[in-house]
Amino acid sequence: KFDRTPLIAGNWKMNMDHVQGITLLQKLVWTLEDAKHNFERVEVAVFPPFTDLRGVQTLVAGDDLPVAYGGQDLSPHDSGAYTGDISGQFLARLGCRYVLVGHSERRTIHGEDDALLSTKMAAAYRHGLVPVLCVGEGLEVRTAGTHVAHTLAQLRANLEDVTAEQAARLVIAYEPVWAIGTGEVAGPADAQEMCAAIRAELEALYDAGTAAAVRLLYGGSVKAGNAAAILRERDVDGLLVGGASLDAAEFASIVRFEH
Ligand code: PEP
């Protein structure tokens, strides 16, 4: 069913120090290699904490591992007096392919708004990083039944300054906030409903070719047991996995959803 290469991505959040991170990544790759996983057929990416990235780069480059990685956030600025921030150019220098932009934990805990996220999108593109833009509604919005309109409004705001050429390289993760880390998973039909709406919106904002090129991920309490059913949906091109990506065996079986 896949027109686009599926992407299975693990968001480690603030878990795994630089020693634990290397061990986890090594275990994950060994497990997948043992299972003869075809990394060209299903792409694997991890989002470790910033302090792990140098170690991840050394491991991936040194052993030529077929795994992509990225930062969990980036500054809208390139350098300067921004204590505690990490710039896109630093991530690019460490070999990052991706960067998460607008994860719900950044939006809620750090108060990141759409205006800020537009500048973060621009920063990601400026340094050749592929943004994984996270959108999705909270429980009140879902209960009110306005989740599609809400999520598309977020999408439009965050893509305001993104050109069609840039958008063609984009990854979008639909993550209903009520399903993140709660054990509450959106059903495959819910994931499909939103991903189809996002793709239609991309076609309206850009064109059909761009809409067909963008990979749409679902995220929210994904486990080995529910991954395959969600990925069977037509417009779902991959998964963004939090908790279950911290266990190499569990994450490997999500990556191997077809087996
Ligand atoms: C996430 O952090 O993006 C996420 C989906 O988390 P979890 O899988 O733990 O719900």
Automatic annotation (TrEMBL):
Which first-to-last residue range defines the signal peptide?
none
From the UniProt record, list the reaction(s) this protein catalyses: D-glyceraldehyde 3-phosphate = dihydroxyacetone phosphate
* Gene Ontology MF terms: isomerase activity
Q: Which UniProt keywords apply?
A: Cytoplasm, Gluconeogenesis, Glycolysis, Isomerase
Active-site residues are 103 (electrophile), 175 (proton acceptor)
Q: What is its EC number?
A: 5.3.1.1
Q: Which CDD domains match?
A: TIM
Q: Does the keyword Isomerase apply?
A: yes
**One Pfam family recorded for the sequence:** TIM
Look at the named UniProt entry and state the broad enzyme category this protein falls under. Answer: isomerase
Residues that bind substrate: 11-13, 181, 221, 242-243
Q: In which pathway does it act?
A: Carbohydrate biosynthesis; gluconeogenesis; Carbohydrate degradation; glycolysis; D-glyceraldehyde 3-phosphate from glycerone phosphate: step 1/1
Predominant location = cytoplasm
**Where does this protein reside within or beyond the cell?**
Cytoplasm
Transmembrane segments annotated in the record for this chain: none
Per the record, the similarity remark reads: Belongs to the triosephosphate isomerase family.
Functional summary from the UniProt entry: Involved in the gluconeogenesis. Catalyzes stereospecifically the conversion of dihydroxyacetone phosphate (DHAP) to D-glyceraldehyde-3-phosphate (G3P).
How it assembles, according to the record, is: Homodimer.
Name of the molecule in the record: Triosephosphate isomerase
Give the taxonomic lineage as stored in the record: Bacteria, Bacillati, Actinomycetota, Actinomycetes, Micrococcales
